[in-house]
Amino acid sequence: xxxxxxxxxxxxxxxxxxxxxxxxxxxxxxxxxxxxxxxxxxxxxxxxxxxxxxxxxxxxxxxxxxxxxxxxxxxxxxxxxxxxxxxxxxxxxxxxxxxxxxxxxxxxxxxxxxxxxxxxxxxxxxxxxxxxxxxxxxxxxxxxxxxxxxxxxxxxxxxxxxxxxxxxxxxxxxxxxxxxxxxxxxxxxxxxxxxxxxxxxxxxxxxxxxxxxxxxxxxxxxxxxxxxxxxxxxxxxxxxxxxxxxxxxxxxxxxxxxxxxxxxxxxxxxxxxxxxxxxxxxxxxxxxxxxxxxxxxxxxxxxxxxxxxxxxxxxxxxxxxxxxxxxxxxxxxxxxxxxxxxxxxxxxxxxxxxxxxxxxxxxxxxxxxxxxxxxxxxxxxxxxxxxxxxxxxxxxxxxxxxxxxxxxxxxxxxxxxxxxxxxxxxxxxxxxxxxxxxxxxxxxxxxxxxxxxxxxxxxxxxxxxxxxxxxxxxxx
Length: 476
Prior knowledge:
By secondary structure, the chain is α/β, with parallel strands linked by helices. The chain is built from 19 helices and 11 strands.
């Protein structure tokens, strides 16, 4: 029991999360509403502020934003935007029903700050929670049940990342295969020929008690399926142990998965990635309109950067390269020049110094990069001319980075899937560490984007890009 009490203490999130979330969200609505209504001589500013705060908290609570399971788990902007739209709708209905004389324009202006306040609060708490989990706190201890190869696969995936709440503490192996995960195989269940019965449950429950695990992950397979898995689930649930069955899918977003049943079988339907239809059209429109607006807005910056490049070193202000786009089509990509003129002819002499473990060429201290070039790369200003590529339809605002032809020539079948969509000006690679990532991590992020694309995900990546650019981490 002492072990279990220790676990429960580790699992708990910080106690200040809930009161802080409620207080910040309430004040983020009440103070702006009260101030704007008072300044514009609206009726009952105090009561309106209280009503708006109550509605804002109620909407979030109805969607479990403050539940222990969801609190601080995400910093997504999309969830807050949806809550805000609902808030506007609720208050509009109340305004009509009550026959209130409050100005709709004043109310809309007063309610805008709560989005920013709540987003900042959510992101700050999420970052704190991730930092806590990197110290192995606020985590759930998991016992993995399955054949050793499947169990090792699960343990490896959990260990590679710290942005989740699970930590594997042991394995209940099925059969006699050796585990390569490094975790202890606490007990072994019968393999081929084993019959469903109480022995499985007793062994799993004993392992969970000893290791302090409160959650059981089961990897179904040849020897753990059907009636045997059903009986194990009965025993675990009867003893108050939650069970999660892992189907073996990786990097498939929840919105693509739909559960159904047929003839007593549980079916998991996986929707194909979005490639056409209205969402695809909206992405194209967003790309073109967004690129045009950014070109107009950044036009003075274009002039300043071009002048700085020309004054810093000999050569043109712009650099062009042939890159590979969607379905392998080559296109001419534009950048501000960050290297000495003729730098590509010197690359062969530097191949031995390549610091990337894959097909890309990266050096932290590439001698070809100019002084102005280092500054431009740190803040991604050298990428701005690619807005013209987006406007021309060669690229998208968000997507995988466009590879060179010689890189694509070495791609395998999996890596070629990166070319299923238009390459992007920014993407998961940009907001997740850039050049500090290994090649395998880069490919994994790109494939996750390709398979799980949505407009909401694009908005989230673009919002995270600003912080990544200011931070400058991994840019060289």
